[in-house]
Amino acid sequence: MQQDQMFNAFAEQARSFYQPMRKLNTLMLDHMGKIADYQLDAAKRYTETGLERARAATEIKGMEEFSEFSNRQLEVATELSQQMMDDSLKLAEMGNEMRAQLEQAYSDAGKEATDKASAATEKAASAAEDKASSAASNKPAAATSRAKQN
């Protein structure tokens, strides 16, 4: 019986210990997935733009078309530059969001650990008091039974 209680207490402590780590790992994996998806979408956009411009270059047949192509290239370069800035800002925002989530998770884990430590300390103190009061109540009974024997 005592061993079962000790084993159950150990198992509960292990679950409590690993729960915050599972939460942090889940947050990290979710964040990595979001960033990977965003980067893949961005790479696809950039690739499509590059392919579209390469196709446009193959269709140049004269100086007028070359001039139009060159003007459009400047526009596309400006659009890509703006898109890259927007993508950088979005990735920074995602990073800040992740940082806030991690800070909250660490805070929650710290509070939970503190609460559990306090509860364990109170439980241990209560058990010690019970043991002390039990020992104190047994001494007079033992003395009384010895006195009756004499």
CA distance, first residue to last residue: 39 Å
Shape: rod-shaped
Radius of gyration: 35 Å
Q: How many alpha or pi helices?
A: 2
- Output mean pLDDT: 84
Strand content: under 5%
How many strand units? Answer: 0
Let me know the largest β-sheet.
none
Unreliable runs: none
The secondary-structure class comes to mainly alpha
Order of helices and strands: HH
Percentage of residues assigned to helices: over 70%
Secondary structure elements and their pairing?
Layout: H1 2-58, H2 63-149
What can be said about this structure in brief?
This protein has 150 residues and is mostly helical.
Written description of the protein model:
The protein has 150 residues and is mainly alpha-helical. Helix content is 96%, strand content 0%. The chain has helices at 2-58, 63-149. The chain is rod-shaped. The two termini are 39 Å apart.
